[in-house]
Input
Amino acid sequence: MTAFPLPSPMRRALDLAKMAAQADEVPVGAVVTHQGTIIGEGENRNRRDNDPTAHAEIVAIRQAAQILGDFRLTDCELWVTLEPCAMCAGAITHARIARLYYGANDPKGGAVEHGGRFFTQPQCLHRPDVYGGIGEIEAAEMLRAFFAQRRD
Output
């Protein structure tokens, strides 16, 4: 079996997740790309910013919208290390992101393949193409290690 290198946006998202862990945040990182170029990036910042909405995806989407000067990110892709929650899935829909790539599944808090399966609901106004499992092993291990350390 040949191991394929991760796409560079997911590699950057994993690097951002590591930075989040070093700041004692849940290790999740995200980047938004437009025509192959990263235009937004974020890492979880809930504790640092005292902001329950400061998930990596939201931080990256806000930055990308500012860069493009538009709240619609119709030709953009979001790369995130963990399956998005319902709040982030809603932001992805409202931003009209074209494609979502994510790493680890989140059976407890995810809302794409788990939980409410946000994009399959009839009320969902926009459904991105979704590709899961990209960088899953590294992302999941980072999360496991982070939470194991907190339990010690």
Q: What stands out?
A: The longest strand covers residues 37-43. Residues 136-151 form the longest helix (16 residues). The beta strands are 29-34, 37-43, 76-82, 99-104, 129-131.
